[in-house]
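Why do we care about 3D structure at all? Because function follows from shape, and shape follows, mostly, from sequence. That is the central idea of this module. The next example makes it concrete: a single protein chain, its amino acid sequence, and then its structure expressed as tokens.
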Amino acid sequence: MKLKQVVKTTTLAAAVSAMTALATPALAEVLIGSTLAITGRASFLGDPEAKTLAMLVDEINAAGGINGEPVRLIQYDDGGDPNKARTFATRLVEDDEVVAVIGGSTTGTTMAMVPIFEEAEVPFISLAGAVAIIDPVKKWVFKTPHTDRMACEKIFTDMQANGISKIGMISGTGGFGKSMRGQCMDVAGDFDIEIVADETYGPSDSDMTPQLTNIKNTDGIQAVVNPGFGQGPAIVTRNYRQLGIDLPLYQSHGVASKSFIELAGDAAEGVRLPAAALLVANNLAEDDPQKPVVMKYIEDYQTATGEPVSTFGGHAYDAFKMLAAAMETAGTTTDSAAIRYALENTSGFIGTAGVVNMSPDDHLGLDLSAFKMLEIRDGDWTIIE
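And the structure:
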């Protein structure tokens, strides 16, 4: 008899508890999706991006969330594989029902996901470099890094100022390297630059000596440009010095992290590249509007991770901050269309990449002044303009 009473009481309590739970609405969450190359060959991109997003989610939730709602980041590791990225993009839309997505560490993974987010009408902020991501403009797609076309223009501007008119190129065949090679080819004539040698290398190549020897033996070359990212440019740089090529070597913003200097070693000395102000934060003028932004990010990231910042983590920082601001401006964390509209009209946003002013015709919002031309001296970055 007592046993039956206990069971009855327990059952009744459970029923009351269940009814109470149904009667009390669960606290709404802001569901933001992300798929990044956290592991694999592009992990030097995705790892700091993932750590930055995790840090910012903790930070914003500690401050009360977005519009009073806590943020939950649903994150996947695509390892830089476009097929995995596409699968995760579908999962984020169909299963996780996120309101927006930040991700795409590489151009290849980004372009694989674009059709999914466009069809689902989910705002997507890419962290990859190719101009093709936002040109032509895609209604639901944005990006935070400077484009490969801008990198070519910044490099050629520096070359023109130094009287360089004939160059060689050695480009990676991955999505970014291939895209930047095409962009450099397209704009070279605008700067009276003639590309007289054109070589490529694959993502798994471990020695670029043959290609660089061809470049070295081409008459009239005054400098060399290496569009690419990952370990390839470091190998190119080491082989370049081993061959005794005594010409200026320009890299892309795809190597704008301390890891490139560490991989290339002493061979990196003198290499020039365009990059964000984040790499030279201490050297910015005190009245530079970016200085307090980049200095705070550096301090927060190093405190949270114990690691130095890279421009790649900065891309994620800008994306999250812009998305949160768009949600606050739109007054909603669930209406994707309103959030997209607010993103598209971002104006005067100061991030690690520069001052962002987007429009219906520009889903990046940066101009060439957002790039700094840097040179590696004594194992560190130096502003040369």
